Amino acid sequence: MKDAYDVVVVGAGPGGSNTAKAAAENGLDVLLLEKRPEIGAPKRCGEGFSVNGAKTLGIKPDPRWTINEIWGANIVAPNGKRVSVRYDNQVGWVIERKMFDKLLAIEAARAGAEVLAKSEVVGLIMQDGFVKGVEVERHGERFSVEAKIVVAADGVESKVARWAGINSTQKLVDIDSAYQYEMVVDLEEPDMLDLYFGNDIAPRGYVWVFPKGKDIANVGIGIGGNVSTKTAKQYLDEWIAKHEPFNEGRIIEVNAGGVPVGAPLEKLVGNGLMIVGDAAHQVNAIHGGGVFEASFAGQIAGRVAAEAIEKGDVSEAALMKYDKEWRAARGEILHRIYKLRRAIEQLSDADLNYLAEELTGEDVVAFANGERLAKLAKILMKRPHLIKAAKELM
Amino acid sequence: MPRKVDYDLCMSCGGCVGVCPFLALTLEHGIKLIVDEEKCTDCGSCTKFCPVGAIKEA
Ligand SMILES: Cc1cc2nc3c(=O)[nH]c(=O)nc-3n(C[C@H](O)[C@H](O)[C@H](O)COP(=O)(O)OP(=O)(O)OC[C@H]3O[C@@H](n4cnc5c(N)ncnc54)[C@H](O)[C@@H]3O)c2cc1C
Questions:
Q1: Do B51 and A231 touch (CB under 8 A)?
Q2: What is the predicted pLDDT for the residue at A211?
């Protein structure tokens, strides 16, 4: 370990490891720091990941994490009506995040990055309005590491950007409070994701059953962070108690977490600073997926970091290239999805039941990807009290 | 009075750390949630967010 690097990446989630790998592949001297003793564990994830996502990222599916194929989804309305879609081809996996994250960190290391677990960044070195490095705590020892660029890939609990003066606090209206059991349970359709909606079931969110095999599933819930009637755990326990066979499930793991479902940060960079992944609120606000988004942003950030360092300019203006490239590819679509989330959360159970009659499963999946929103707006328009929500979509 | 963590309930998920407007929370080593009593203003955001009800009024 040295006392200065081109780039220090804080956090070895998918965002950080992809950034570190891309930066190292582009010839930079990289240090990737993770405060937890074990990368990827405990997981804070339902572990859904799409085939298209993997293709776009150029991540080769590895049987160590592609543990269960997904071919479609069942969306269940508050009244129990199911809207299903089964595709002709495999559309995703439920992955083993612990393996996925660890292998990404291994790839970063193989590309030449130094990787260090159980090393926590506790502060920034700032000079003349530039981030110049980090303060690290490791096994009771404290030391500083200089960096031309620091990457905040420190997830939902991000502080690095805030230490640098960028307000990335997660507002309660823009975060989901999540809880999950991984359980052994007999599943009817192990190749389908199940999503249950309803204001009594999961206000501002949904309950999910993501199968990890024919008799294993992540059964979880996300609710609005501003919902204070009950906790996410209470809502999930109530749902499970009422639903066979999950009430008989054998619990092998318990997870919790926060999902940033607000709009992405307005600015992803500062002087000597780049922000990636959950830390930048780069998440699909409808389904809460962030593994793809963090990885995609990280790949751009790592490459732009190399370009900036080669030119000898790590100012905010130079690093804006990452912000611009990312926004051109993902910014508009994530904003659209965010607006959709704000519109949907105004719907009553009666409205949701009505939508379940009008929509196909393909429609719902398209909406979750920010597509076909004009169709949704048209359907909402038919109900006078939903005209406002429909207009917000357009 | 600063908020108190019930360590029997806390899942160490860190969501509250991102929610706290005053940077008063830290998830040390990804394991132990610490409240900085000087910074905590008792605003209750963390309590509202917590998926398991682990952060309480003192
Ligand atoms: C319950 C739940 C279910 C979800 N389900 C899905 C899903 O099915 N599909 C999907 O795509 N996404 C899902 N997500 C979202 C997904 O998990 C995140 O979007 C993704 O992990 C973001 O990656 P990241 O690299 O930005 O952050 P993380 O994966 O959170 O990585 C950040 C890392 O930084 C480390 N860190 C933080 N602070 C410091 C510090 N000071 N020093 C050193 N290290 C630090 C953390 O320990 C952590 O390892 C879910 C989230 C939750 C909570």
A1: yes
A2: 98
Q: How far is A39 from chain B (nearest CA, A)?
A: 10
d(CA A8, CA A87): 42
Residue A138 to residue A35: CA distance in whole angstroms: 8
Q: Which of A159, A231, A256 sits opposite B13 (nearest CB)?
A: A256
Tens digits of residue pLDDT in A215-237: 999 999 999 999 988 999 999 99
Nearest to A257 among B13, B29, B45 (CB): B13
Alpha-carbon gap: A236 to the closest alpha carbon of chain B (Å): 10
- Are A94 and A211 within 8 A, CB to CB? yes
* Furthest-apart CA atoms within chain B: distance in Å: 26
Ligand 1 centre distance from Cα of residue A239 (Å) = 25
Asked whether B30 lines ligand 1 (CB < 6 A), one says: yes
For residue A151, the model assigns a pLDDT of: 99
Ligand 1 pocket check for A111: Cβ under 6 Å? no
Say if ligand 1 is within 6 A of residue A370 CB. Answer: no
pLDDT of residue A394: 79
- In DSSP terms, A48 is beta-bridged to A94
Burial per residue of B11-21, b for 16 or more beta-carbon CB atoms within 10 angstroms, e otherwise: bbbbbbbbbbb
Q: What is the DSSP string of A125-155?
A: EEETTEEEEEEEEETTEEEEEEEEEEEE--G
Q: According to the model, what pLDDT value does residue A274 have?
A: 98
Does A108 sit in the ligand 1 pocket, CB within 6 Å?
no
Distance of alpha carbon B8 from alpha carbon B54, whole angstroms: 8
State yes or no: ipTM above 0.95.
yes
**Strand order through the sheet with A92-94:** A48-50, A92-94, A68-70
* Protein residue with its CA nearest to atom 13 in ligand 1: A289
Query: Domain ranges in chain B?
Result: 4-56
Nearest Cα neighbor of A13 from A102, A112, A93 is A102
Distance A156 CA to ligand 1 centre (A): 6
Residue A339, pLDDT score: 94
Which residue from A179, A102, A298 is spatially nearest to B15, judged by alpha carbons? A179
pLDDT in tens, A36-73: 999 999 999 999 999 999 999 999 999 999 999 999 99
What pLDDT is recorded for position A393? 84
A272 within ligand 1 shell (Cβ under 6 A): no
> If one looks up domain B4-56 in CATH, what number appears?
3.30.70.20
Nearest CA in chain B to A39: B30
| pTM of the predicted model over 0.95 | yes
**Residue A316: φ, ψ to 5°:** -55, -45
Tell me which residues of chain A have a pLDDT lower than 50. Answer: none
| Percentage of chain B lying above the pLDDT 90 cut | 97
